[in-house]
Amino acid sequence: MQLGLRVGAQGSLGLRLVWLTALRLVVLTAVLTVATTVYLRGFSFGSFSSRFALVTVALAYFLTAISAGMLRLGRALGAVAVAQLITDQITWTGIVYISGGPLSGATSLYGLTCLSGAILLGLRGGVIAAIAGAAAYLALCGGMIAGVLLPPSDQPIEAYPMHGSDIGYALFVNLLMLCVVTLLASYLAERLRVTDGDLEIATARAREAERLAGLGRLAAGLAHEIRNPLGAIAGSIELLRTGGTLSEEDQNLCEIVERETARLNDLVGDMLDLSRPRAPAKAVMDLGALARDVVILAARSGRGTDVRVTFDGPADALVFADAAQLRQVVWNLVRNAIQASSPGHEVKVVIAGDPDGYALEVRDQGPGIPIETRARLFDAFFTTRTHGMGIGLAVVKRILDDHGFPVDVESRDGEGTTILVRVPAATAGELERRSVI
User: Fold this and answer.
1) Angle between helices 77-98 and 48-73 (to 10 degrees)
2) How would you label 400-414 residue by residue, b for 16+ Cβ within 10 Å and e otherwise?
3) What are the backbone dihedrals phi and psi of residue 255, each rounded to the nearest 5 degrees, phi first?
4) Distance between alpha carbon 292 and the CA centroid of its chain, in Å?
5) End-to-end Cα, the chain, rounded Å
6) Vertex 362, ends 332 and 267: CA angle to 5°?
7) CA distance 433 to 437
8) Is 348 helix (H, G, I), strand (E, B) or coil?
9) Residue 245 — φ and ψ, nearest 5°?
10) 163-204: per-residue pLDDT in tens?
11) What region does 361 belong to: left with phi over 0, alpha with psi -120 to 50, or beta?
């Protein structure tokens, strides 16, 4: 799962890099065209400013070609993005130098790279671009103030400010612009990322709903076709087993057939419950009595004979819920705990009162659930067992969500698993309505 997310993130970054590389070429071409035809139109082709502009843009084209080659390899895309941002800011500094120095209008190109950085890498990319742009611009301004960097030899010296008093205001405004653009671009990029993530989640949910709807149609059509022969098989095996004419080995075989028939019947029931949910018909009910009944039934059927199933709870625990659906919840949790247990283990169902109502716990002594799989434990069709389809716990989660009852999972490797369901106690008004009825 994590590997898939990393691959997806790399693919998304690569796509953004492709688009921004293409945009970079367009902007470089536009800047070169404007610089040579507008700002430098009075200069000869061999002048210093013209040659400087051509060399600067040519180097930018060359670095873009290298980036494109790295993109084709699909490796170190994060490093490629950072390198593009830094080289862009250096390129814009060269254009700023030959188009008026610190007061040049080309300083707005720094903000464009900050926007690109935010789109590529989020806040980190915007900050990297802002730091690179600020460092390059500060170096340009500092060099001119210190007299280390002189104006282009073919341009009038009076067009270039050389003193701190002349450059200070432009320096402050441009650095402020870099900070504001970086923050806004990073915020917008983060909002876009969150919105895109929400859209992906909604799309995944829609696909899951469509799949479950298809499962519902299939299950509804096959339920009777499957259950009728299962009932006939179970009845026939029961007659054979109780006829008194079978050997002990044949009796054991009949028990295996009965157990597997019951498992298939439970599977069909789970599929129907998952694919055709109904709204809970809530009424006051005794959760304690229900849990005791389920424990007695589980202890007498299936693997309840080699896994001890016990109950610990109050004499009564009145709650407001759908009794049939809550019985399904407890049964599925107990059945799942038994399946996760080895012979001789104990599955314990505990109901304890707390200030908010009752805590229903189903504890097993199985191998535990790895932390990386707990988040998907209640997903439909997700299972860690070789046998099973991962439907029972999905039914549990859907019923509990419909009731508004939270469920938690506590597990440690080798120390078993506890599934905890919190059920509010019936209110005085609900109990009064029950007594009136």
Assistant:
1) 170
2) bebbebebeeebeee
3) -65, -35
4) 39
5) 52
6) 10
7) 6
8) strand
9) -105, 0
10) 777 788 888 888 888 888 888 888 887 777 777 667 777 777
11) beta
Type of residue at 370 = P
For residue 73, CA distances in Å to 62, 63, 77 come to 17, 16, 9
Sequence-separated (6 or more) residues with CB below 8 Å from residue 152: 48, 49, 52, 97, 98
Q: Are 241 and 258 in contact (CB under 8 A)?
A: yes
Please check whether residue 206 is in contact with residue 214, taking contact to mean a CB–CB distance below 8 angstroms.
no
Pairing of strands 407-411, 283-286: unpaired
Q: How many CA atoms lie within 13 A of 237 on its CB side?
A: 19
**Alpha helix (H) residue ranges in 122-163:** 123-146
Instruction: Give CA–CA dist 421/3, Å, rounded.
Output: 32
Q: In which residue are the tokens 């504890």 written?
A: 363
Q: In the structure, what pLDDT confidence band is assigned to residue 45 with cuts at 50, 70 and 90?
A: low
Residue 382 has pLDDT above 60, yes or no: yes
130 with 182: CB under 8 angstroms? yes
Residue 246: CB atoms within 10 A of its CB come to 14
Domain ranges of the chain: 2-205, 283-436
For the domain spanning 283-436, the CATH number is: 3.30.565.10
Contacts of 276 (CB under 8 A, 6+ apart): 216, 219, 220
Distance of CA 269 to the CA centre of its chain: 31
CA quadruple 334, 340, 343, 344: dihedral sign: negative
The larger pLDDT score, comparing residue 208 to residue 60, is at: 60
| Tokens of residue 2, six digits | 């994590």
**Side chain identity, residue 23:** L
